[in-house]
Amino acid sequence: MAGDRMMEEQQEESYPLTPIDKIANGNSLLILKALLPYLPSQKQAGAAFLVKWMEIQNIRNYYHTHPAADLTAMALPSHSVTDLFQSIAPFCRRGQREMMEQFQSMMEMMKLLETMQDFSGGENNDEQSESGFRKSTEWITEPEQNLMDE
Questions:
Q1: d(C-alpha 122, C-alpha 57), whole Å
Q2: What is the model's pLDDT at position 134?
């Protein structure tokens, strides 16, 4: 019964592996992690620390044997905020994903507006654009500001 509940929680929080996780884990460590709940409770903590230590060793070995390894998106020919959102979306909760989608839509509308202004011959002042962008995104940081003020 407890195992069923654990499996349901794992399915709800199932995330894909990031590139660094794939390097760190390898197939054998994923198997060890899956076996942790089946160890006696007094052995689980030690086994978990051992698995984490092995992950660190795998990362160290990877970078030692691949000195020119570059896992950054900055190495790609082009990258954008949309690319960033797409990369982190699988790790976000539903509300966070919805907020990112709204922000993305707002950015697309702003680009369209700028294109229309450029097309109509209107001058586009960078300071006005930045100010407008700042004002249009205040709703994102507003709840955090309210928490800090309290």
A1: 58
A2: 59
